Amino acid sequence: FLEGKRALVTGSTSGIGLAIARALRAEGAEVVLNGFGDEGEIASLCEELGATHSGANLLDVAEIEAMMAEAGPIDILVNNAGMQHVAPVDEFPLDKWEMIIGLNLTATFHTTRLAVPAMKAKGWGRIINTASAHSKTASPFKSAYNASKHGVDGFTKTIALELAQTGVTANCISPGYVWTPLIEGQIPDTMKARGLSRDEVINDVLLAKQPTKKFVQPHEIGALAVFLCRDEAGNVTGANWSIDGGWTAE
Ligand code: NAD
Prior knowledge:
Strand order of the largest sheet: 3-2-1-4-5-6-7
Number of helices: 8
GO molecular function, one term: 3-hydroxybutyrate dehydrogenase activity
CATH class: Alpha Beta
CATH superfamily: NAD(P)-binding Rossmann-like Domain
EC number: 1.1.1.30
Largest sheet: 7 strands, parallel
Shape: globular
InterPro entries: 3-OHbutyrate_DH, NAD(P)-bd_dom_sf, Sc_DH/Rdtase_CS, SDR, SDR_fam
Enzyme class: oxidoreductase
Distance between the termini: 36 Å
Family: Belongs to the short-chain dehydrogenases/reductases (SDR) family.
CATH topology: Rossmann fold
Bound molecules: nicotinamide-adenine-dinucleotide
Low-confidence stretches: none
């Protein structure tokens, strides 16, 4: 049902973004990928999805502007690229703070401001922001990440109101722990910060948060993104959709 629609998914060379890109493609959308990675792997993803790819670094406004200009009018914007760093606030590396706020929050502002005019002109658009359970609740040692994701929630609500009468919706998807390279990458730091073994981090820190005791699967997030693109979801806007195994219900 998405034939003729063009979707840009940031951070879609891996993990959740890739799963969302695949799900939108399966419904017929034309997909623009973004993110870093091995050139050969990206080329085969482009072939698999009939997609184009922008290697824009979303920490650089000029690169975002070039990506948006090259992509042309976007119907479905998925702001998904994100990064994490785990450290106590008084030891938090200053460059990591800037990067996390820059990528997770500020880049979302830039892509959105650049995508909205064409959506408004068409009278249809979907903005889907990958936030996090950490946009609704907190856990220690993730000050920059939690601040950025709470920011994404506030930003999304604001643009939902601004765009309410334009046919453009804006929503957050807020996963709990999803098994992706981002999660794997934070296990060693969490081991260090909390003095735990790998198994203890997985079972006592990560899955301890999720009443289902299961990692969310990336394709489940793709399915939710597809739902938000349906015309039946036209009145779903300014919402922050949890997909977290019950984490934020506690
Ligand atoms: P991932 O590390 O697998 O993928 C991140 C993607 O972002 C990659 O494609 C990477 O190349 C891209 N990227 C990184 N820095 C970039 C930059 N400067 N410019 C452009 N692209 C850049 O991560 P993931 O787990 O799939 O996470 C995707 C989103 O989901 C993030 O916003 C993350 O905060 C959020 N999230 C993840 C989880 C989880 O458990 N994995 C939970 C909640 C929210």
